[in-house]
Amino acid sequence: MISSSTVVNSVVEKLRAALARGQWRSGDMLPGQRELAEQLGISRPSLREAVIVLETQGLVRSMPGKGVLVLEANLDEAVSGGSAMTGASLEDVLQLRYTLEPFIVGLVAQSISSKEVGQLRLTLMDMREAFEANDSDACATAYIAFHEELFALTSNPIFHSVVQQTSNALKQSADVLRNSPQHLAERLEENEAVVRAIRSKNSAQASAEMRRHILREGQRMGIELNIPDDNLGT
Amino acid sequence: MNHLVSHQHHHDMPAALPTSGRLGKPSVNDIYSQVFDAILEQRMAPASHFTEESLGEMFGGNRGVIRRVLARLSQQQVVILRPNHRPHIAAPGLEQTRQALHARRLAERALVRLACKAPQPKDLQRLRDLVEHERQCLDRGERGAAIRLSGEFHLHVATMAGNAPLAQFLGSLVPLTSLAMAQHGSRMHGAWQVHVAIIDALQGGYVDTAVRLMSEYLDHFEQKLLMAADTAALT
Fold first, then answer.
1. Which of A82, A143, A203, B147 has its CB 3.0 to 4.6 Å from that of A58, i.e. a possible disulfide?
2. Which among B72, B83, B163 has the least Cβ separation from residue A96?
3. Which domains does chain A have, with CATH numbers?
C-alpha cells in the first residue's frame, strides 16, 4: 500500500531537519531502518518512501545491502537543484514518460527472460484483481509497481534516478490514477498489450503499445503531448 | 600537485563563464567548473588521489563548498563517493557511454523539439555566448573547457524546453558523456559549427532541422568516441 503522503512528507521534513542540524554529515551512513523508524516513531514503509524522496532531492543515496549514505550538506541548494519533480506538471511527467518508456520496453523485449515475463504478468494480475474488486487504490499501486518493474528490467543504472522520480510523481498524483472504472479497464488492457508484445519479444510492437498507452493516458487526463508527427524513428 | 593549479589562470578568462559575477569568495558553481575542467583536462586523472582537504587547498574553497561540489559531481556520476573511501574519478566504459549517448539522443530530440516552441532572445544569446567561448577555448587548445562548455550548451537548450524533469534527466547524462569524451581523447572537430546551426534552427523555429541536427551531432559524437577507442585499443 502507498502510505499517505502527509506521513511521508512529515518524515521527509524530520529527516531534512536532522540533516540541517548536522545530526549526520555527508559521508555518514544513516542508522539502520529499524532503529531510525523507531527514533522517528514511524513505520518502515513510510521511512523507505521518505528516503526515496530525499534521494531524488540529492540529499542521500541508497546503497543496496549497505544502507543509506548522506550526500549533501547544503539543503537549500539540494532543494532547488534536486527536486525538479516538485514543480513538474503532469504534462511534464507524461512527456518524460513518452520520451523514455517506449524505448525502455523495446529494450526489455529484447532481453527479458521467461521468469521475468512471469513477474510482469503477476503484477498485471494484481492490477486485474484490484480492478475486479473495484479497489482503485490497489489499482494505482499495481500500476506504479508495473512501471517500476519495467525500468528495473533494463538493469541500466542510467534510468535509476529517473524511475524514482517518475514513480514519485505518479505517487504524488495517485489521485489521477484512481479514476473511473472505464479508465481503469482501458489502462489495464493497454498494459496487457505491452506485456503481450514483450512476451513475444517484439520490440517494435512493445514500443508502439507503450506509446499508445501514454498518449491515451494523456487523453484521459486531458493533456495533449508535443510529439513528432512521424515517430517511427524513436 | 602543482600541475593541478598551473592552469588556473584560464578561469580569469572567458573560459569560465560568469557563473557568478561576484569577486572574492568562490562559489560552489565557480569551484565546480574549475574542478570539472581539471578532470576533463586530465589534470586530475582517474587514478589520482584527492581528499576534501587537498581539493580545498588546490581550488581555494572551504570544506563545505568542496563537499557540495563533490556531491554534485557524484550525482552526475563523474566522481564516485563511497563511505570510508577516498573520492575517485569515474572511468565510464565504452558500453556505459554508448548507453548514456543513446539515452541522450532520446531526451535531446524531445527537448530540442520543445525548445523550438518559443525560444526567448536572452536564451538564444546565452547559447551564442556559450558557442563563442567554446570556439575560443578550442583556439587556445583548452580542450577540457571546450568539452564542458559544449555540454553546457546542450543543458541550456534543455532548460529552454520548459520540462524540468526531462532536463534534469539530461543533466545526469551530459557530464558523464563529457568525461568519456575527454578520457577517450576523441576530437571536438566541427562541434561548435553544429551548435551554431542548431541555434539558427531554434531561432527560425525549424523544428525538424533542429531535431535532425541534434541527432546528427550525437551520432557524430558516438562515432568519434568509437574511433578514438579503437585507436586506443590498437596502440
1. A82
2. B163
3. 5-82 (1.10.10.10), 90-221 (1.20.120.530)
Question: Chain B: nearest CA to A54, how far in angstroms?
Answer: 13
d(CA A144, CA A90): 15
For the cut 90, the answer to whether the pLDDT of residue A33 exceeds it is: no
Do B135 and B211 belong to one domain?
yes
Residue with cell 587556445: B140
Question: Nearest-CA neighbor of A127 among A116, A114, A138, A115?
Answer: A138
Q: Which region among A56-65, A97-106, A133-142, B186-195 has the lowest average model confidence (pLDDT)?
A: A56-65
Dmax over CA atoms of chain B, in Å, equals 53
Q: Is the ipTM of this complex over 0.95?
A: no
pTM of the model as a whole: 0.73
Judge residue B120's burial from the number of C-beta atoms within 10 Å of its C-beta, 0-12 exposed, 13-18 middle, 19 or more buried.
exposed
Alpha helices in B116-142 (DSSP H): 121-139
Cross-chain residue pair A69–B83, CB shorter than 8 Å: yes
Point out the domain boundary residue: B74, B89, B104.
Answer: B89
Residue B231: its pLDDT value, please?
Answer: 74
For residue A133 the three cell numbers come to 474488486
Q: Burial-class residue B49 by CB neighbours within 10 Å (0-12, 13-18, 19+).
A: exposed
φ, ψ of residue B80 to 5 degrees: the values are -105, 120
| B71, B109, B164: residue with CB nearest A26 | B71
DSSP character for A113?
-
pLDDT, mean over chain A: 80
**Collapsed DSSP state (helix, strand, coil) of residue A93:** helix
Final residue before a domain boundary, out of B44, B67, B89: B89
pLDDT at A229: 62
Decide if B87 contacts B67 (C-beta within 8 A): no
Beta carbons of A74 and B68 less than 8 Å apart:
yes
CA angle centred on A162, ends B91 and A131, rounded to 5°: 145
Q: Cβ–Cβ of A71/B71 closer than 8 Å? A: yes
- Domain extent for B164: 94-234
Per-residue b/e over A79-99, b at no fewer than 16 CB within 10 Å?
eebbbbbbebebbbbbbbbbb
- Reply yes or no on whether the pLDDT at A98 is more than 90: yes
pLDDT in the model for residue A197: 97
Residues B179 and B197 in one domain: yes
Q: What is the pLDDT of residues B5-26, one digit of tens each?
A: 444 444 333 344 444 444 567 7
CA distance B132 to chain A (A): 27
